[in-house]
Design brief:
It is a single chain. With 167 residues, the protein is mainly beta. It is built from one helix and nine strands, in the order H-E-E-E-E-E-E-E-E-E. It has one helix at 2-17, and strands spanning 39-43, 70-76, 80-84, 89-91, 98-107, 117-118, 124-126, 134-145, 164-166. The strands form two sheets. Strands 1, 2, 4, 5, 6 and 8 form a six-stranded antiparallel beta sheet that branches. Strands 7-3-9 form a three-stranded antiparallel beta sheet, with no helix packed on it.
């Protein structure tokens, strides 16, 4: 019995020593670059005026329409933005909804409405200025209404066009 206990003590003692632990650690630097938040403001209304049932209203061109609604995106200068918007918007009123198809034009300088270029949904644009300073990009809205059916119910129709920009 003493022999068995001695053997057990030796085994347990050896086993306990074979479970020695080690540890290690290391670190990495954590960094972040903060840029100015993004804002988008809109001014104006795109008005087709009075339209006659049974006709197709003339399209309103953003580059040549001096009263075209304008969107101003402001963020960290020099950064790219992605522009998105729906292909159509609905104008609702007393009768069947009318369909508006937008045309969006843009430029990094508000003075260049007449020379602005078409901006398709999903397109990238770049804010004016340089990184670390405020930058802008300007958008103008034009577009067309679909043909107005001859039996369209008279009344006021309106809807909302939404432009989205993101870093």
């Amino acid at each position: 019995m003493k022999k068995l206990m001695l053997v057990a003590a030796m085994v347990l003692g050896t086993t306990a020593m074979s479970f020695a632990q080690t540890s290690a650690n290391t670190g990495v630097n954590v960094t972040a670059t903060v840029i100015q938040g993004l804002t988008l403001t809109a001014t104006g209304t795109l008005g087709f005026g009075t339209v006659v049932a049974g006709t197709t209203p003339a399209a309103l061109s953003a580059p040549t329409n001096g009263s075209a609604p304008m969107f101003t995106a402001t963020g960290d200068g020099g950064h790219a933005l992605t522009v998105t918007y729906l292909a159509t918007a609905s104008l609702t009123g007393p009768g069947t909804a009318l369909t508006f198809t937008p045309s969006v034009y843009g430029d990094a300088s508000s003075a260049n409405q007449a020379t602005s270029t078409s901006v398709a949904s999903g397109s990238p644009v770049t804010l004016s200025g340089s990184t670390g300073s405020p930058g802008n990009y300007y958008f103008w809205l034009g577009g067309a209404l679909s043909a107005i059916p001859s039996n369209q119910m008279p009344g006021a129709y309106s809807g909302t066009f939404t432009l989205n920009v993101s870093y």
